[in-house]
Hints:
By secondary structure, the chain is of the alpha+beta class. Helices cover 27% and strands 37% of the residues.
Amino acid sequence: MKYWLVKSEPDAFSWDNQVKNGIEPWTGVRNHLAKRHLKEMRKGDRAFFYHSNVGKEIVGIVEVVREAYSDPTAEAGDWVCVDMKALRPVKSPITLAAIKADPRFTELALLKYSRLSVGPVSPEHWAMICEMGGVK
């Protein structure tokens, strides 16, 4: 299993929307590196659901339930999406400020590539962030 972080602007698509919809295609990715990450995702992989712009915090955990397929929202190009299923909220949202303040996260893609909407998370970082958020 691999771990990821996916970003969404909560005024466009929030954690509450994800929970309400259950399974939702993760569409609209238009960055080639993020697209590569979507193509690497496998059923059962987990991702942190991150509210970008407003909130700037990890608020939940989703699971990949369908691997990469053609993004129906793309007008042109070979863009892909995956289907995500809401698993659980984190007990305590983990803010970007808290992650930046911890020197153990200097190599986290969220910090290294701040504009990237889909990025990998190492197993070690996953465990540390889960602990910060009260997730077992």
